[in-house]
Structures are given as structure tokens and as C-alpha cells.
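Hi P.,

Sorry for the delay on this. The queue was packed all week, but I finally got your sequence through. Input first:
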Amino acid sequence: MATGALTVADSTVRVDIAGQPAVVSYAGTCPGAVAGLVQINAIVPPTVAAGAATSITVSIGTAQTARQSQPGVTLVVK
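Then the structure:
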């Protein structure tokens, strides 16, 4: 593992959808996937309105070591 790299097992995973915290039910490896791929399952908060281009932010790590997804990532909520 590269110096400074974070492992999902040792880190806090946070998902915010439309600025609201989502419940993360799983964060880890995905069987049969390429090395380094991380699967994150999160539950969309019931108060998030349906629609296109709903913002999503993923953070992995503690407050001091957190890595965050790039700005402008969106998803569609039905």
C-alpha cells in the first residue's frame, strides 16, 4: 500500500446526499472487481427530493485525514 493511503476497513466513510447525511450500510471491496475498487452502499435519506443532478459527496477518513470526492458529482433520485 502506498504511503498515506487509506484503507476502508480502518477509516470512517461518510456519504452526504443533497447535503444530508446518508446511512452507509457497507463500504469495502467488491468480489471479482479490480484491485483498489471500493464499493459503498448508502441509503438515500427520505427527505431528499426526487430529481436529477442531486449532489453527492463521499468522504473517507478521519477529520484529519479525510479524502473527499471531487466537487460536482451528482446522482438521480427517483
